[in-house]
Design a protein that fits this description.
Elements: H1 17-28, H2 65-70, E1 72-73, H3 74-91, E2 95-98, E3 106-107, E4 111-112, E5 122-123, E6 127-130, E7 137-138, E8 157-161, E9 173-176, E10 180-182, E11 188-190, E12 200-201, E13 212-214, H4 222-230, E14 235-239, E15 243-248, E16 253-254, E17 264-265, H5 268-278, E18 282-288, H6 293-302, E19 307-311, H7 322-328, E20 332-336, E21 338-341, E22 347-352, E23 355-360, H8 364-382, E24 391-394, E25 405-413, E26 416-419, H9 429-432, E27 436-440, E28 450-455, H10 457-461, H11 463-466
Parallel strand pairs: 1-21, 7-8, 15-18, 15-19, 16-17, 19-23, 21-25
Antiparallel strand pairs: 2-14, 3-14, 4-13, 5-12, 6-8, 6-9, 10-11, 20-22, 22-23, 24-28, 25-26, 25-27, 27-28
Helix pairs in contact: 3-8
Length: 468
Amino acid sequence: MTARGTGQGLDAEDLDVEEALALVKDGNGTGRPTGGRGPAQGEGHGSGTRPGPSAPETSRPGGTAEHRHAATPWPEARTIAARAARSVAARRAPVSVTLGDALGLVLAAPLTALTDLPSFDTSAMDGWAVAGPGPWRVREEGLLAGSTAPAPLADGEAVRIATGARIPADTTAVLRSEHGRTDANGRLHPTREMQHGQDIRPRGQECRSGDQLLRAGAVVTPAVLGLAAAAGYDTLATVPRPRVEVLVLGDELLAEGRPHDGLIRDALGPMLPPWLRALGAEVTAVRRLGDDAKALHKAVTTSGADLIVTTGGTASGPVDHVHPTLRRIDAELLVDGVKVRPGHPMLLARIRDDQHLVGLPGNPLAAVSGLLTLAEPLLRALAARPAPESYALPLRQAHGHPYDTRLIPVVLRGDHAVPLHYNGPAMLRGIAAADALAVVPPGGTRAGQQAELLDLPWATAGIDACFT
């Protein structure tokens, strides 16, 4: 979608139709109808017909220059989204899950050792357990991991032992296989000097029963699962996954096949559920509602999800039903428009004390912007996940918007971030190849100036890891 005739010295790709018309009106004192819907997801950044001069300016969320400057700054919008979920998160009851279902969840209670680790003296190497100085007589039968308690060693005696096997009482050290030799009489000799206690893992070396291994709030990683299992756990007390329902709006959307006859493929229905799962959510349903106000009202009022995500319909055209539905159910608008490119018509509403709605713009990259701006902080707070450490890299090219934050798909090359082409609101080609999104503050950056980066889940964790 491009802007025409703005007369304001801005790049066309930085403006949507509604903003372009707002600037024309500001400069010329006239307003014009916008025409139809956006090109890629049935909403664009403004759909329907623009009110004439007599209409109240505030009736168009995101639709006028005046409203645009009243929109929420991007950093503040993210803070509001996280804060909105914190009180809800504090009231969510922990759930007990098996180790197989705990990956990616957050511990709701400290992980305390249920046993000493190791729970008995064990051999750290394959070799011989020996008692006293060598040479040693070697027992005929060896010791394997998992065997019953062995008989104590007598002074001058040795026994073959495997890694992880229980150490016999009165053992001096473990002689590694490569550090011993036997003579013609079958007696064992060391080939290098030994230390008392060498290659023995004493009971409780890693922890004692009752020690705190991890604090509440730790994310359950594969390594945490291994530690929990070693410490004696079969289940873990965790913060439950936030439940998310996705409502895809737009009569012009196809679920399969090629675009034709003014109909376009739904890009967000396939993209959002796995992305939301990568953010730690459980996606309970994906519903395609079309442009049906009654269906939207019913879906919102009957949903049991913690978060409802809608796509499209966030402007004020004749078939944009999100705002009217929220007014009808007396929802509280926490964010109504964000100073960010792309994606400024996004919104966040509180439906109930324990339920929120994020309205994403219909254009695909604009929807990604809304997902990372509002849904990600809210889901992170609901799941009690820690905020990622922020980092920045220099941008290889200058970018920016005069008033708003810009989110630009980039690839990481050495110590620089390289902006990608095809980064318009309706485009996914750039983000499909990206490693991260660069956060360019209002006013833009110079070439070589550092910009904050938002990692994409799969860029750091890998596809299989982040979507598990």
